[in-house]
Amino acid sequence: MAGFSVSRSYTMSKEDVRAAAEELAHDIEVQYGLRCRWRGDTATMRGSGVDGTLVIDDDVVSVKVSLGFLAAAFEQPLRRAINDYLDQYVS
User: Fold this and answer.
1) CATH number of the structural domain spanning residue 6
2) Between helices 14-32 and 75-89, what is the axis angle to 10°?
3) By residue range, what is the domain housing residue 69?
4) Domains contained in the chain, number
5) CA-CA distance, 49 to 9, in Å (whole number)?
6) Which of 22, 27, 28, 68 is most buried by a 10 A CB count?
7) Regarding beta strands 42-47 and 35-39, do their DSSP bridges make them parallel or antiparallel, or are they unpaired?
8) pTM for this model (two decimals)
């Protein structure tokens, strides 16, 4: 199973990071057809051949994605989208 992890440290408020993370999760839902569920500061994302988590800790936001064989073709665009979003909205 293919996959990747992305993490960003942040100094902005946790509430602002949560708002940015919710937008990221929504964008991923819309663009890649995943379902996202929040429990506390952890979002679980699931879709056809894709499982992932987004976790907001006190100073780091982390995204971990596992991709099945067919979904592996989306690894680079999905990784790029997540990195770009975190670079732009999390500081």
Assistant:
1) 3.30.310.50
2) 150
3) 2-89
4) 1
5) 28
6) 28
7) antiparallel
8) 0.87
pLDDT tens across 41-57, in order?
A: 999 999 889 999 999 99
Three-state SS annotation for the chain: CEEEEEEEECCCCHHHHHHHHHHHHHHHHHHHCCEEEEECCEEEEEECCEEEEEEECCCEEEEEEEECCCHHHHHHHHHHHHHHHHHHHCC
Q: What is the mean pLDDT of residues 13-33?
A: 89
pLDDT higher for 1 or 80? 80
CA distances from 79 to 66, 67, 74, 83 (A): 11, 11, 8, 6
